[in-house]
Amino acid sequence: MIFATHLKSFTILEVLIATRNFSPDYRLGEGGFGLIYKGWLNKETLIPAQPGPRMDVVVKALKPTCYQGHREWLSEITYLGRLDHPNLVKLLGFCSEAGNRLLVCEFMPQGSLENHLFRRSEQPLSWALRIKVAVEAARGLAFLHASESKIIYGDFKSSNILLDMDYNAKLSDFGLAKAGPMGDLTHETTQVMGTQGYTAPEYMATGRLTKKCDVYSFGIVLLELITGRRAIDNKRCREERNLLEWVRSQLREAKKLCRIMDIKLEGRYSRKDVFVVATLALQCCHPEAKHRPHMSEALSILENIPSIRANRQPEMSSSKSKINGDGPSSWSHGCHYGSQVPMDCKIHP
Question: Residue 117 sits in which domain range?
């Protein structure tokens, strides 16, 4: 297989030095196909860092006995190694020496969106930062869908959206990515894979994978951003375990929109923004794929919501003191609308 020429082919010795011999102290967690470690490289030469200018990196180590992991390793190199976009995690190189299969990527110091939304130890993201993440994640997906290979991401979820020091969102983990159908074909037929709660119903039923499956997953993540709830949460009562079903039941009436909002936001959000995002989320999650927007259309809607239009230029601060910097809005004093929720927001049989 021919890999992208700009990727560095690391030796196992270089990776061992960079990770301090895969020290348990630098283990970040475990991914779908193996363990994940933190390491350090020289910024300019990409050799294991000695004292001086260096950068943090992530090293993903494939389990030697994991065949599925090997396919995902190849997929990451095939797609992430050939793509360059501000909202995709940068792949720096790989190692395939002596039976080892490793990936070396840029380190994202703020962790995953999932952690910020659902872990109590993390300071909650403000509404402004949630909108920022939604827009940037949409840009990443729209870029993939518009690429020459019409790439289907295949595993869009909050844990695969990583945040850098300035809370810029980037998509990671391209193990399930696939080139989209070409010519007269409308879909790719594959073994059903993905994560419960994020997977489009038609893909679950038929194995037919399209870009609209990514759109469905994107809609679920929008709902997580709004509600602060997981796509599937078996710790909740039966009526509230499935996030999409619960939100649909609440949004039969527009006046109930405030009931789904994440309480950690403490009322600091724009009701106009919420209405637009909630409407878009349910459109993205329409049971019939043909009624879902394209990612380019979803991105355009998000980029034109009132607060984004009004604040196109200002940068988001990385200071923790500003994470909850949204000022109080009329939502703090009640959730009243003069209009109905659009028909696309109602429960579909």
Answer: 113-345
Instruction: Give the whole-angstrom CA distance, residue 19 versus residue 251.
Output: 49
Q: Same domain, yes or no, for 122 and 79?
A: no
- CA-based R_g, the chain, Å: 21
Whether 309 is covered by a domain: the verdict is yes
Task: Count the helices and strands in the chain (H runs, E runs).
Answer: 10, 12
3-class DSSP state for residue 214? helix
Query: Residue 93 belongs to a domain with what CATH number?
Result: 3.30.200.20
Nearest to 80 by CA among 64, 93, 68: 93
Catalytic residues: 155
Q: What pLDDT is attached to residue 123?
A: 82
Same domain assignment for residues 236 and 288: yes
Tokens 């992991």 -> residue: 69
State the angle between helix axes of 127-146 and 271-284 in degrees (0 to 180), rounded to the nearest 10: 30
Distance set, CA 43 to CA 4, 49, 53, 110, 168 (Å): 20, 8, 6, 20, 20
* Position 189 confidence tier, pLDDT thresholds 50, 70, 90: low
Give me the residues paired with residue 275 across strands.
Answer: none
Count the residues in the chain.
349
167 and 25 belong to one structural domain:
no
Lowest mean pLDDT among 97-101, 290-294, 302-306, 341-345: 341-345
How many domains are contained in the chain? 2
Say how far apart CA 254 and CA 43 lie, in whole Å: 52
Check if the beta carbon of residue 153 is closer than 8 Å to that of residue 216. Answer: no
Beta pairing class for 8-9 and 91-95: parallel
- Per the domain annotation, does 3 fall within a domain? no
